[in-house]
Design a protein that fits this description.
heterodimer, A: 362 residues, Rossmann fold, OB fold (Dihydrolipoamide Acetyltransferase, E2P), six-stranded mixed β-sheet, B: 309 residues, MetI-like fold, two-stranded antiparallel ribbon, 13 helices
Chain lengths: 362, 309
């Protein structure tokens, strides 16, 4: 399957520049997820790969062949659209076979292909229905089916699940993951939902403001975000950020802030030996705080519990730390009362530090 | 049931009453009057009460009247030809002009001008242009070196063509405007999907755009068909039905039956026949679209039910 490479890709609408030189390489059979808030340029990037938007500058290579001047049909792609983009006047079978019929493939081949894909997606019963006669989830499947019937090298997905309700979205996400195992193709998937990104991707590309912020495996991005944006974007509930100062206290390197002073691990101290002392932003994930009434002063935060959100096995506590908001995720059976100030130990390995000015990770 | 709740139930009907009254007087009364008149032998000198009731004789006379049959045939031929031409040219223009060109809005306004001119004026304009010696068409033909001009309004074949051209000129913009609106509200993403599926521009038009515009086009077609069956002024000014009966469409015949032959009952009967024809067309279309919608809604409901389990 082809190898896709974006080189210095730029998109301008008149004076307004929405993409600032995107460099990206997608390896064979990789599931790449472009994720970011709305307006970050992820959909534009995908549409430029598809050939639905013109390229203002830079180049797209498919198997080292520049394609930015080619029509979409010459790029060997299949795409699933956010609103499914089914042909409303054709039944499911006709929708799925449209591309093959345009290529004038033999009827027997088309029928066999449709039968296979319909079986895989559970659409066999609906082959003679029109899109208007299907539910949202079924339409979604038809859109996938239409992409699958073509033997394209690359699959593009433009927020395919965002029009579904929460329950169905979860179900389709699992089906997608399953389909992913059966279909070895390049897949490029755009979403604003970080859970979809984390669960589906081989590689996540986080975008913001027309720039790539970071790319890597979900685990890399989760554990070692390169800046505050990536750290805050991935993970649910999101990472807590506390303002403080990097300072040496009693021979240990600490983050000192209003109402807390946390000691960093030895490795961090060595790594940051030459870093300037002064204001930093500290990040810690809600799951890296644990209820520990007996923890030592330099390893824990004292938090006043303001709200408790019961989710089931887990609860999320929204707490106050001398005026800054901190969320804690913990088992629901932990004995907690609202309004109390309690001590939560912070996992020293999981403390992230960001430059206050540039927001880059230290 | 208490008085208060009964009053409550009646409230909506109270609010509907004025509209119902106006409808009854403005719509049902004239139609009823016309239907009644079609059973009478009635001349303009009589009051309606004095006319003789002759049952269905007006209708049976019409069915045996060769001239009426000829009129009817001319009307159908005229409607079929103009509406076909207008649909092809109107939709074709819309397809060509569905893009962002500078000055497009001005161009569009110019395109719909003919529709806004009063039909009498259109008739007069074209009559001058068709004039055998000073009309622009024949002068152009002669200046190109041809001996003879075309007998636009004096030959039975050419006069039919002449009224068709005038009508096409005036009403193509109507279809153009509606087709353009339909085209611009087509789902963008379906067309993009077709791009990716490898459709050429022509295939996108024939396989996606036109089928998706079909509901609007059918309504447009019906509106034009109804109008074409009733067209009067332009033809009256251009040919007044002649030469012979070659351009005498039913509306013109009705007008002349009432005005010249003073046969109000027969004119009413003709109007009724025309009305029934148009009603049949409209009702047929209405039920067809209702049926389609109901079927789609039913199947979608079933599908959603299934999914919920």
């Amino acid at each position: 399957m082809p190898n896709i490479r974006l080189e210095n890709l730029v998109k301008r609408y008149g004076e307004f520049q929405v993409l600032h030189g995107i460099n990206l390489e997608m390896k064979e059979n990789e599931f790449t997820v472009l994720v970011g808030p709305s307006g970050c340029g992820k959909s534009t990037t995908l549409r430029m790969i598809a050939g639905l938007e013109t390229v203002s500058d830079g180049e797209i290579f498919i198997d080292d062949k520049p394609v930015s001047h080619l029509e979409p049909k010459a790029r060997d792609l299949a795409m699933v659209f956010q609103d499914y983009a089914l042909y409303p006047h054709m039944d499911v079978a006709k929708n799925m076979s449209f591309a093959l019929r345009l290529e004038r493939r033999p009827k027997a081949e088309i029928d066999a292909k449709i039968k296979d894909v319909a079986e895989m997606l559970g659409l066999t019963k609906f082959l003679h229905r029109k899109p208007g006669e299907l539910s949202g989830g079924q339409r979604q499947r038809v859109a996938m089916g239409r992409a699958l019937t073509r033997n394209s090298g690359t699959f593009l997905f433009d927020e395919p699940l965002s029009n579904l309700d929460a329950k169905l979205r979860g179900q389709m996400r699992a089906e997608l993951a399953l389909m992913r195992q059966k279909v070895q193709k390049n897949m490029i998937y755009v979403t604003h939902d970080q859970i979809e990104a984390m669960t589906l991707a081989d590689r996540i590309v986080v975008m913001h403001g027309g720039y790539i912020q970071q790319q890597g495996t979900p685990e890399e991005l989760y554990k070692r975000p390169v800046n505050k944006f990536v750290a805050g974007f991935l993970g649910s509930p999101p990472m807590n950020f506390l303002e403080g100062d990097l300072a040496d206290v009693d021979g240990r390197l600490c983050v000192q802030g209003q109402g807390f002073c946390l000691a960093l691990s030895d490795e961090r101290r060595q790594a940051l030996a030459n870093a300037p002392r002064g204001p930093v932003t500290m990040g810690i994930r809600p799951a890296d705080l644990t209820y520990a009434p007996d923890a030592g002063d330099n390893t824990a935060l004292d938090l006043r519990v303001v709200v408790s959100e019961y989710i089931g096995a887990q609860s999320v506590l929204i707490c106050d730390c001398a005026g800054q908001k901190v969320e804690v995720e913990l088992k629901s059976d932990t004995p907690i009362a609202l309004g109390e100030t309690l001590r939560f130990a912070a996992n020293a390995q999981a403390i992230h530090l960001f430059d206050r000015e540039t927001e880059e990770a230290l | 049931m208490s008085a208060a709740s009964r009053a409550n139930r009646l409230t909506p009907y109270l609010f509907l009453a004025p509209a119902a009254v106006i409808l009854a007087f403005a719509l049902l009364y004239p139609i009823g009057y016309m239907v009644y008149a079609s059973f009478l032998d009635w001349s303009p000198s009589q009051r309606i009460g004095e006319a003789d009731f002759i049952g269905l004789r007006n209708y049976t006379n019409l069915l045996q009247d060769a001239a009426f049959g000829e009129s009817f045939w001319v009307t159908i031929k005229f409607a079929a030809v103009v509406v076909t031409l207008e649909m092809i040219i109107g939709v074709g223009l819309a397809l060509l002009l569905d893009r962002n060109i500078k000055g497009m809005s001005l161009l569009r306004t110019i395109f719909i001008l003919p529709m806004m001119i009063a039909p009498i004026v259109v008739g007069l304009m074209w009559r001058y242009m068709y004039h055998p010696t000073v009309g622009i068409f024949n002068r152009t033909i002669k200046s190109l070196g041809f001996e003879e001009g075309i007998p636009w309004l004096s030959d039975s074949t050419w006069s039919f063509i002449a009224v068709v051209i005038a009508d096409v000129w005036q009403w193509t913009p109507f279809i153009f405007i509606l087709a353009l609106a339909a085209m611009q509200s087509l789902p963008r993403s379906a067309l993009e999907a077709a791009d990716i599926d490898g459709a050429t521009e022509w295939q996108k038009i024939t396989l996606i755009k036109i089928p998706l515009m079909m509901p609007v086009l059918i309504v447009t077609l019906m509106l034009r068909l109804i109008d074409a069956f009733k067209v009067l002024e332009v033809i009256m000014v251009l040919t007044n039905g002649g030469p012979g009966l070659s351009t005498e469409i039913v509306a013109l015949r009705i007008f002349r039956t009432a005005q010249e032959f003073q046969e109000l009952g027969e004119a009413a009967a003709m109007s009724n026949i025309l009305l029934m024809l148009l009603m049949a067309l409209t009702i047929g279309m209405f039920f067809y679209s209702k049926l389609q919608e109901a079927r789609a809604a039913r199947m979608r409901a079933a599908a959603e039910q299934e999914e919920a389990h």
